[in-house]
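pasting for ref
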Amino acid sequence: SVALPQPEVVNAGSIPGYLAPVPITPIVYAPVVTMIAPVWESLNWYQSVQLHAGAEICEGSLVLRHHAFATIPRFEIAETDFTMIFRFRLAHGALHQRNILLADWFEPWQFMVHVLPHGRPGVMLRKDIDSCGSQQFQDLISLTGEHNAIHECHWTTMAVVWSRHERLCRVYVEGRCVGEQIADQAGVQTLDLQCNTHAHYRIGSKQDSYSQRDSCFHGEIARIAVYPVALPQPEVVNAGSIPGYLVPSTAVACNSDSSSSDSDD
């Protein structure tokens, strides 16, 4: 009941009672794909933020003018990889000063994402060394991206990707890498960010600043999403363009397991 290949025709023809072997097709199990959701996302600003100093929601965006800001509950990123996605539009004249996107920047400082004058995206990550003040040796990452990467009055998608495995922080604007930096690990045993017990993070303000001019955001923020993994560039594009996007685990080369990522420190 089978069509034998030529070698088996010879065998069957010469051996009485010959039993032709039936090839066994190995079973191949498909990899288990889990979907990675953001640890925090602004799908509904009204439900997820506290508004302060005149901040308001307009047509689905958080609008910040003058000294307005918002707060969100803290989420744990001190011991993991992460990717932060921002969709925003700076007001006319905003780039004369620094604009704070998201920060946990009051003692003990942990992180800050901002846009500097001349349209340069910036990221600050603080080492877990429990020291006061603000000096260069305290920074795990102090990254400033390209000039004119961000423009006023234009909607912009910006992403910050922190990979403990690579000890690398990258900044993307519209899916293009506009800056990267290897972590300065001098004086610390791990790549953890500064440990603290702050209950909230700020959008549009860095809480330690007494200079109103240097601690605001002028414009609109349509979306913020934070993933607990370091996304590769294609997934940065997907996550930046699709609200509520779930990242397939197969698309992430290395997970955010801090125990394995620091094994060779």
